[in-house]
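FORM 7B: Structural annotation worksheet

SECTION A. Query
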Amino acid sequence: MNRSPTIRDVAKRAGVAVSTASLALNGKPYVSRETRFRVLQAAEELGYHPHSLAKNLADGRTRNLGLITPISLEHLFASAGFFSRLIRGMHRAAAEHGYNLSLHIAESEEEAVTRVRAAIRGRSVDGLIITNPTVTCPYLKDLKRHRIPFVFIGRPLEEATYVDNDNVEVSRIGVRHLIECGHRRIAFLNGPAHFTFCVDRLVGYRAALAEAGLPYEEDLVWQSDLTEGAAYQVVWELAPKHEFTALFAGSDVQAVGAIRALQARGVRVPQDVAVVCVNNTDLTSHFIPSLTAVDLHEYWLGYWAVKRLVQTIDGERTEHPVLIPGELVERESCGCPSQDQQRRG
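SECTION B. Predicted structure
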């Protein structure tokens, strides 16, 4: 019979010391983002599940964790690829700790306030995970006043425990790739400005241009809701009014809407306009042309959100955010041959 993998197996596969693997798996500081990700990837590939994470049900807890998504159902279903991977990671971590996970849909921030207050009054969960924080976060005062453990997926403006991507770097990765492929006029289709991740991605877009000595042109920064239809409408209206050879989209869904609008205008992708987007999902690989994307590793966002929440419930200090690195996945839409293709050519 094959034995279960141990932390030593994880450490060996990741190429780190056992002590480093332990720190990475338990969310402790003093481990780089790259090392943490390598250890987590090794644990996933080996199917490693720490036995010590089993919890006794007689500790007075509900063993329930709540997930609140303060976004519209249209946005939720449009981003189904992102959320399905996110929830898979959350489910795994919850199971490791002996918790159940429940979804509380809130189609607005006002409804999110109601959901948070209901969870507090009913004591139905031991803690909450909340996605898509905005610049206002009206429910944050209730969370802090009632001292219910919580974790954000996304960077809140106020001090709070959170797990996120480095969204400044996410944009820099995508825009830098387009610049390296020779583009100098790059449009940016961003999401709504009240989401903090959209604020950060605009910072990253500007930083990539500045690093390359390119001017920032406000006319090339567009905004749409995070749906295909909204992106289509914005690009249909604005693309003919501006000269650009590349477009960086804030999500895979926006990229699809943008490409369809460009094609409806007779613009070829990638021959006339190159496209890179954020979110590497089934949509990006199956769409024609397949989409070059910055992979957010949503699975690990969800996994670490639950890990951080359980640590908070257990009274551990969690001041340091967990930042999951993005990774460029190159496909057809950018029109840039990979180094391997260049060598073969």
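SECTION C. Observations
Residues 51-58, 339-345 have pLDDT under 50 and may be disordered. The two ends are 49 Å apart (CA to CA).

SECTION D. Sign-off
Analyst initials: ____
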